[in-house]
Amino acid sequence: MDFVEELRWRGMIHDMMPGTQEQLQKEMTTAYVGIDPTADSLHIGHLVSVMMLRHFQRAGHRPIALVGGATGMIGDPSMKSQERKLLDEETLRHNQECIKKQLSKFLDFDSDAPNAAKLVNNYDWMKNFTFLDFIRDIGKCITVNYMMAKDSVKRRLSGETGAGLSFTEFSYQLVQGYDFLYLNKNLNCKLQMGGSDQWGNITTGTELIRRVTGGEAYALTCPLITKADGGKFGKTESGNVWLDPRYTSPYKFYQFWLNVSDIDAEKYIKIFTSLSKEEIDTLIQEQHEAPHLRPLQKRLAKEITVMVHSEEDYNAAVEASGILFGNATSEQLRKLDEDTLLSVFEGVPQFDISRDQLSQGIKAVDLMTEMANIFSSKGEMRKTVQGGGVAVNKVKLQAFDTVIDSKELLNDKYILVQKGKKNYFLLIAK
């Protein structure tokens, strides 16, 4: 597999230094991508560069994931308007371990293959580097003029953001450049990859290698991912879409991909899956012929949910979707864990009810008019029940005065009431 051609048809190349493709065709090559360790989970904004490493390894080359423990203590000015919070070593180490666990789902770290992936942390080689040694050995190799010409620096210095640029941040590209030099010398790393906003930092590294060792080094960047409507990719109303289920449940993760637009689905399935060109072309054709069936979104959501979480989590997410949008059974509803239940019914009206009263039994009509304001009157409730329009935990209510008790509780806490086809209410026993 030709790595560059693979990225090209997937729409994943923005800039590439001359000679990169020839180097990769010549021999097994080592490349790295830097990952910011400011959280103990990756989010989907990281996935583009992770997928680049995945394709790189599939093409027979050796990927390195560099956790930026040292650079994370500084803060990259690229695409940022403000300096960011700095982290202590204990937090960085914790974040590194969590990130490696997530990366293991995409990359092979453990085999004895010559192109097994490697995880490194630049804090390990920067922590004992004194300031005087750094400015003497590295600082003298790159001129201030060269550093000032970078867009990320120019934008901040021009006052567009009004925040200015600290010396700490100004030195960032030198520290990142030294990472490339260090990996080049110690692990024969000849290529650095990243988002297009990293081009300036990456080329500082290639320049440093050229000046210090006279060796060859290359750069390749992918476009920053956007949404067709101009919105920011990976952001929802509740914030980032995380890979860790503690922050974004598998159900919500699955729903994010399932709900992307047709235009975005056609782009994302090339970037975020390992499906072949033939498979993707077939799916695109199916989408054009029957867009209402959403084959692209369904396959995209499946591939990426299984890759990040598991087949089991994917199946549970599909089943949970059926509960909200399909004709699911009470049995399926009862199988949902609490987190998934709350994810599925996030945003529906909630009412607190008395656990003590429920244990003694409450008539449905009293429960839904007096304890929870689901119906405005008992007459309205009786009429809706007679029309078959009320369900408790996905079971149609046969009589308005049916007694509901604590046996109905889901996860020993919730009762789901459905009024009509689309109106849900969550009762919480307290």
TrEMBL record:
Residues annotated as binding ATP: K235
MF-aspect GO terms: ATP binding; protein homodimerization activity; RNA binding; tyrosine-tRNA ligase activity
Cell location: Cytoplasm
'HIGH' region (motif): residue ranges: 37-46
Keyword Ligase: yes
Cellular component, GO annotation: cytosol
Enzyme Commission identifier(s): 6.1.1.1
Keywords carried by this UniProt record: Aminoacyl-tRNA synthetase, ATP-binding, Cytoplasm, Ligase, Nucleotide-binding, Protein biosynthesis, RNA-binding
Short motif 'KMSKS' region, span: 232-236
Family statement drawn from the similarity comment of this UniProt entry: Belongs to the class-I aminoacyl-tRNA synthetase family. TyrS type 1 subfamily.
Free-text function comment from the UniProt entry: Catalyzes the attachment of tyrosine to tRNA(Tyr) in a two-step reaction: tyrosine is first activated by ATP to form Tyr-AMP and then transferred to the acceptor end of tRNA(Tyr).
Name by which UniProt lists this protein: Tyrosine--tRNA ligase
Lineage: Bacteria, Pseudomonadati, Bacteroidota, Bacteroidia, Bacteroidales
